[in-house]
Amino acid sequence: MATINDNYLKLPGSYLFAEIGRRVAAYKEAHPQADIIRLGIGDVTQPLPPACIEAMHKAVDELAKAETFRGYGPEQGYSFLTEAILKNNYEPYGLHFGTDEIFVSDGSKSDCGNIQEIFGLTDKVAITDPVYPVYLDTNVMAGRTGELQEDGHFEGVTYLPCTAENNFAPELPQEHVDMIYLCCPNNPTGTTLSHAELKKWVDYAKKEDAVILFDAAYAAYITEDDVPRTIYEIEGATEVAIEFRSFSKTAGFTGTRCGYTIIPKGVTGKAADGSRVDFNRLWNRRHTTKFNGTAYIVQRGAAAIYTEEGKAQVKETIAYYMENARLIREGLKAAGIEAYGGINAPYIWLKTPNNMPSWDFFDKLLTEVNIVGTPGAGFGPCGEGYFRLTAFGGRENTLRAVERIKKMKI
Amino acid sequence: MATINDNYLKLPGSYLFAEIGRRVAAYKEAHPQADIIRLGIGDVTQPLPPACIEAMHKAVDELAKAETFRGYGPEQGYSFLTEAILKNNYEPYGLHFGTDEIFVSDGSKSDCGNIQEIFGLTDKVAITDPVYPVYLDTNVMAGRTGELQEDGHFEGVTYLPCTAENNFAPELPQEHVDMIYLCCPNNPTGTTLSHAELKKWVDYAKKEDAVILFDAAYAAYITEDDVPRTIYEIEGATEVAIEFRSFSKTAGFTGTRCGYTIIPKGVTGKAADGSRVDFNRLWNRRHTTKFNGTAYIVQRGAAAIYTEEGKAQVKETIAYYMENARLIREGLKAAGIEAYGGINAPYIWLKTPNNMPSWDFFDKLLTEVNIVGTPGAGFGPCGEGYFRLTAFGGRENTLRAVERIKKMKI
Q1: What is the pLDDT averaged over residues B173-180?
Q2: Does domain A54-306 have CATH number 3.40.640.10?
Q3: Can you point out the beta strands (E) in B78-132?
Q4: Which residues of A are less than 8 Å from B4 in CB distance?
Q5: What is the least distance, in Å, from the CA of A276 to any CA of chain B?
Q6: Which residues, numbered 268 to 327 in chain B, qualify as contacts with chain A under a Cβ-Cβ cut-off of 8 Å?
Q7: How far does Cα A168 stand from its chain's mean position?
Q8: How many Cα atoms within 13 Å fall on the side-chain side of residue A34?
Q9: pTM assigned to the model
């Protein structure tokens, strides 16, 4: 008889943002007049850059004529896009990757979720705590973990606590691990790792023959000099790191879907027969077998952010969101709430007043001042007592949200 | 140390179409003047329906303004699309699914490849032979098979031969199987199963507590009355079948990327504790965890094929390709080559002259008459001695290809 993948039953009821959606919908149904401001899910609100709009209109028109029609493209992405990415995001740092070391996809969530498939099932996974839930959930689904424990941790996973106490910089694990998920700038905390801190991790990975899965979806928001824009700025990283990047937050592509993954050919893992195998080759096999390329229209839109106009437009929108971040950060401070992040990332990570549990604070914000945020506990046990607000709202809503929080009884 | 997923090493060198691409590129480099006609990969050549173009322009414009901007959508697809699909593709057959039983994706290749993740790793897989390579390759990657044998079969997989001898209708397996991949209209043979033949499979699945993974990507090409347009026309199928559908061949979306999967809530599998679990629930968890929805623009384009104009335009393009199919089928016949399919599908499956091996015939066609087709052996051992041509070329190229084949020495 057909059986199910029992690992799925280890996962708690629902994906974090689905649960938030459920609670907001229930509140809205009970209070249809409520003027809800959403600073929860990290979703952008500003329109796409005009350069992307123009490029996509042009691409749509190409699909309207047989002479310029595009069917299946290369699964790994069109060279007009991969070359633009490498030239703009890596070459300025003296980093030269081949176009066969980059894989365009329909978004970083897919890549971060699927990457674990090319690793052995007995590999030990390390994740920061709190962290974007996809890394952990996909490893649970694959069977790389044991059961969920009472303390909220999955058996067999190495959690790396990131709290105000250690300034959100995880310490190297005591035990050996094989796959290390790092997210920098971090989702949800909005904090970053310096060159020196990141170098510790690259050195650890080299020493332990581990691979770093580096999610840099928010790289475009980095403002401080000492924060690497890519992990490959760190010496030796091309031997031990896979990097994920996204157009979602960079250029408003959350509903347009485009991301990419860099897998340098020097990153290898051990096969059962003791030989070393390029992860690049395995990912290429996966990508060409289970994926059929990102929509041509979308790739044209993505490439447009590397034109002169595109660059200026992207910069402007990011500055807009980062001004929101400043307003939230300072507003929280004025309200007597401790807050972190928001300097190199569009996320503000606040300490809940009086150590209130995260989901209680979620309900309090939703019901008392009609603001939707994200409970820190949803990102891992060490997120308990924290709460995430995003700077992706419109300016007016952000200002109104800050005013409401300031007036809230805490 | 980090290890690799060793199952990948069981797979032969490259994905079928990558190998074809490699050979064609090599030939083209050696013969830059060659006038190559591609009837190999099943890729469309006609432009998108004007209704889709119009809808996508409108959607692009919506993304240009904050008031109409769309960020993350529901991972399962917007209701404007799911409702249109259900209303047009299922309700006319008296089939009523909930919008929570349909999942929109970036294409059927992804869904067909990923679906196996929600099944147990010890489930026995049956596939027709020959067949679209994705079903088998993704099960090899997951570890649901043994090694590749000398006869071209993977250990532990039940192959269901489909050849001219059995009129391309697979026989029920002697042994028990849990997951049955059926593709109807079939890729690559272009043949179909009648109501009665399909009913045998549904009855088998019910009896054996198996699940049918039914790929109906070519459903829009069916012309004969006795061929079901959806497996759910068969009584009992909503308890045992998952159906995959695509806009790729229906409306020219190979480079635009949209498909969907129907998982009725009655389709269940056994958990380790003996309970029954809905596959729908597991797929929903997978879809929301590893995927972030299909691009809004693309979904708007897809929905437009269900408008009155869209329907007429789609019908016209399909008729155009099916006329190509007729020309190829009859041309082959005139050339003394046996051919199948091409009545309910845009594929023609020919018997190679003098039982020539498929890859030899590929090279012969490529080098002698500059036509690219697909070697039958690339779809499985029973495809050896067969060859696939597609009707997706332009009319002129199709006519020229037929003339070239007629003049070829066989």
Answers
A1: 97
A2: yes
A3: 102-105, 125-129
A4: 118-120, 269-271, 277, 279, 282
A5: 9
A6: 269-272, 277, 279, 282, 285-286, 288-298
A7: 16
A8: 20
A9: 0.96
